[in-house]
Amino acid sequence: MIIYKYGKDIFEPQKSAYTNQEATTKLSASETKILQFLIDNSGEIISREKLLEIGWPDKVVVPNSLNVAIANLRKAFKSKNEIIITIKGAGFTIANNTFIQQQFQPEVVIDNEQNQIEQLQQADSLTENNAIDTEINNIKAPSKSNAFPTITKIGYSVCLTIIVAWIMLWASSWQSPPCITVNNQKICGNIELLNLQKLPQNLKSKNTVYIDTTGKMYEKI
Asked: How far apart (Å, rounded) are the C-alpha atoms in residues 23 and 78?
């Protein structure tokens, strides 16, 4: 199961749900596909045509359908409308390192312990000999007690995973300014003010273009 975390917000594609500190918003199938595609391609500008194809495959829809989907996603973000950035005349993007992807594997250790206990209980019900009953009860007792250290280890592992994820998220929050890539050219800063038509010409591939708060672009070697 894959989830995406942004601070304390959680996006769960399998459940088509976005959860923030206030509430959980149920997303449509199209909104879920669009958001996941933007996250998986963070730092890249995705055209409106591509997002229409992702959100409504093999269907013909009016262009305004994308505007509605983006507006609904921004409602789910609440005060974090800057997550999806509109690049005028080009499309939409999400800055690099905005979301952290996490993958969870189902825990099978607890299930194995439960199966062992159930098998012992079935054996106990079929036994009429008191001596055998006593022996089975003696076997069952340590089996149950052994389950507690196992659950404790799992709890520590989950806590450690959460702490590591929080540290990674905290560290990523210091990666400023946000950056995207256009035609193999790295662009950082206030990318919501990016105007592709005013992009400097004859750029050196190793130079980074920065956009200040006024929308002015300059190179940094």
From this structure: 10
* C-alpha neighbours within 13 Å on the C-beta side of residue 9: 18
Through-space distance between the first and last CA atoms of the chain, rounded to whole angstroms: 42
Question: At 173, is the secondary structure helix, strand, or coil?
Answer: coil
193/103 Cα distance (integer angstroms): 34
Alpha helices per DSSP H over the chain: 29-40, 48-55, 64-77, 109-126, 130-172
Residue 54 near residue 34, CB atoms below 8 Å: yes
Determine the Cα–Cα distance for residues 141 and 133; give it in Å rounded to an integer. Answer: 12
pLDDT tens digits for range 199-214: 766 666 567 888 888 8
CA dist., res. 44 & res. 41, Å (int): 6
- Cα-flanking dihedrals φ and ψ of residue 92, to 5°? -135, 160
**Residues 36/17, Cβ–Cβ less than 8 Å:** no
Instruction: Give phi and psi for 180, each to the nearest 5.
Output: -135, 170
User: What are the pLDDT digits (tens) for 68-123?
Assistant: 999 999 999 987 778 999 999 999 999 988 899 988 765 544 455 566 666 666 65
- Cα 12 from chain centre: 7
Predicted confidence band of residue 194 (pLDDT cuts 50, 70, 90): confident
Cis peptide before 178 (omega within 30 of 0): no
User: CA torsion 136→137→139→140, rounded to 10°?
Assistant: 120
| Both tokens assigned to 81 | 């409308």
